[in-house]
Give the backbone structure.
Amino acid sequence: MTVTKIALVGIGKIARDQHVPALAASDAFELAATVSRSGGLEGVENYGTIEALLEARPDISAISFCTPPQVRYDGARAALAAGRHVMLEKPPGASLSEVHALQAQAAAANLSLYATWHSRHAASVPAARAWLADKTIKSVRIDWKEDVRVWHPGQQWIWQAGGLGIFDPVINALSILTEILPVPVYVTGADLRFPSNCETPISGRIQMGGPDGPLVESDVDFLFEGEPLWRHVVETDAGTLTLNEGGAVLDIDGTTPATNGAEEAKLHGEYDGLYAAFANLLATGSSEVDLRPMTLVADIFTLGRRLEAPEFIDPTLQEN
Ligand code: NAP
């Protein structure tokens, strides 16, 4: 098998928790360098800027970006301009228009661009999609509730414009929704609560329509204490499908079905799946950029009524 040298840009929480272990386990990639403002990883060559890496290491043909969305575009554009294939963490950028620009740039240069949605690689998502494929969807309920102080301590970019606030995790729910439903959905309304000191929302309610009228109701909250609730409940003409734990656990009318692909997916985590998919795109000379989850979020911000919420103080930042 061809081993592709790859660099990781932005060595924060998700790079350390998921990308580094997935790359260590991958036969298709070798982590050859990092770009990090804070030193990177022990034992891995590090560059302070993407430009320095691109200049010094023409042998690294793929770059994977784990930076916050607001600073993703310039680096990705530079990487493509230097003839490198690019993989993007979710959301693929700060705006739809900048991702469209990257798509056009990659296509013109015959390079692979992969906009990842890690939650689509959760263990039970393929089985949920397969089961729903021939059903009539009557309603969908999404609850996406977690404690930002536990899951994103100190991440100030989430509260700055382009960081999406609660929609940083909720876009994962929408990536699953658009993957498993056999029908398209569109946003019809939203109430978004913005803390008085933040540029992005902390909680909200969202409504979406489907082919026959109202279809999806969603309640999302970034101040939810205790065990997180990452759940889709889909009512169909043939029973109720529940996906729990962010797509990991499937239940149909109270029983766990024998699911195709779930055992395989449990053995290999979501990020093993992402890097296997990227290797496949490189091998076939293709790109994958599905912007439906990000389009829904953009529409939620366009249609959402802005409501005030109390100031949000990140306890991690208060301690420092
Ligand atoms: P993070 O912990 O804040 O890490 C982001 C890293 O990007 C920083 O540590 C920093 O690394 C680098 N960076 C470069 N410019 C930056 C800037 N202006 N502000 C802040 N950091 C900057 O964030 P993360 O949780 O890893 O999230 C990064 C991306 O992954 C986001 O798009 C997020 O949605 C996605 N993601 C996160 C999770 C999760 O559970 N945390 C899960 C899946 C996906 P250096 O110091 O090395 O330069």
Summary: DSSP finds eleven helices and 14 strands in the chain. The first strand starts at residue 4 and ends at 9. Residues 33 and 44 are 6 Å apart (CA to CA). Residues 270-284 form the longest helix (15 residues).
